[in-house]
Amino acid sequence: MIEIKKTETYIEHDILCDGEVIGTVELCPERNEIARLNISDKYQNSGYGTQVVKMLIQEGYTTLQVRPDNKRAIHVYEKCGFVMADPCFYNMKFSGKLEDKE
Predict the structure, then answer these.
(1) 34, 64 in Cβ contact below 8 A?
(2) DSSP codes of every residue in 43-94
(3) In what order do the strands lie in the sheet with 11-17?
(4) Of 25, 58, 62, 63, which is least surrounded by CB within 10 A?
């Protein structure tokens, strides 16, 4: 029987500005990784994402993954000093058939 067990590998945090939630960030402390960063639409293009990334770098979060088509996020990360290490994400969709290959 297959199970999916929730782990504490990724920890989600709210991003607050003047007491108001403006986004969320998901972190993986074991790998010093920013797993996901989301700034609410209303607050985008205001520098909040850049501020968050810079704060996280100071806390030791020095790796992340980003989809190659997410140009906005790549721009923010590059502005903060990140460089492309290994372009390895692929967009895939289900073909509609299951193959029995084991």
Answers:
(1) yes
(2) GTTSSHHHHHHHHHHHTT--EE---TT-HHHHHHHHHTT-------------
(3) 11-17, 20-28, 33-39, 63-64
(4) 58
Q: Which residue has the tokens 């502005």?
A: 79
Q: How far apart are CA 79 and CA 82, in angstroms?
A: 7
Domains, the chain: 11-79 (3.40.630.30)
pLDDT digits 0-9 by tens, 1-30: 646 556 668 889 999 999 899 999 999 988
Structure token digits, residue 35: 């797993």
Strand duo 33-39 + 63-64: pairing? parallel
- Residue 16, token pair as written in the block: 């607050």
